[in-house]
Amino acid sequence: MCTRCLWLDQSKEDYIQYHDDEWGVPVLDDRTLFEFITLESAQAGLSWYTILKKRDAYKQAFAEFDVQRVACMGDEDVARLLTESSIVRNERKILATINNARAFIDIQNAFGSFAKYQWQFVDYYPIVNNIASKADYQSQSELSVSFAKDLKNRGFKFLGPTTVYAHMQACGMVNDHDNACFRKAQITTSYSNIDFETLKH
Q: Which residues form a coiled coil (predicted)?
C-alpha cells in the first residue's frame, strides 16, 4: 500500500485520484491554469473536496475553461448559471470568474502566457518544502501574499493569499507532498523532464 499525504481522506477514491495524478504536478498550460484558478476561487470559504466533486459541472458551465469564451459571458449567462444547481450558486463568485477571465487575458497579452507570469513568483522552478508532519503545512507564504497582491492589482477577485497558496500547491509551484508520500519523490524527479527554461523567454 502506498504512503500518501497526511491531509488526504483516503476513504474518497476521487480524492485519492486527484492527489495521485494532479496535486503538485507542475502546470505550464494556460487552460489548465485558468481551470485551477477558477476552481480555487470558487472554493473560497468551502472545502476543496466540495469543489472537486463539482469539477465536471464547472467545466461544462464555464465553456471547458476556454478563457476567451468565459471572458465574453454576460448578464444572461450569469442568470443562467445562478439556476445551475451543480455549481456553487454564488453570484459574486460567478461574476468574479468572468472578471478573472478578462484579467487573465490581459496578463497573457502582457507576458505572452499566464504561465510565464505565474511562475516568475518562484523564479521559474518549483519550491520543494520539507513536510515531516501536519505542523509543517502552511496556509499561505510570503510568496502567496505577493502573488495575491499582484493579482488583486491586476483586477482579480476571490484570490487572497490562502487561496493563492492552495493554487500554488495544486499546480506544482510548490511541492507540499509529505516527505513520506510516494508522490513527493516521483514529482521531484520529473522536474528534469520539464523545460522550465521556456518560461523565461
A: none
As given in the structure block, the three cell numbers for residue 47 are 472545502
| 1: pLDDT strictly greater than 80 | no
Binding residues for Zn(2+): 5, 19, 177, 181
**Exactly one of 15, 35, 40, 117 is catalytic; which is it?**
40
Domains of the chain (ranges; CATH) run 13-200 (1.10.340.30)
Q: Please indicate whether residue 58 is annotated as part of the active site.
A: no
What is the C-alpha separation between 85 and 59, in angstroms, rounded? 14
Q: What digits encode the pLDDT tens for the residues 66-85?
A: 999 999 999 999 999 999 99
Q: What secondary structure letter does DSSP report for 84?
A: -
Instruction: Note if 119 is an active site residue.
Output: no
Residue 22 catalytic?
A: no
d(CA 108, CA 30): 9
Host H or E run for residue 175: strand 174-175
d(CA 73, CA 54): 20
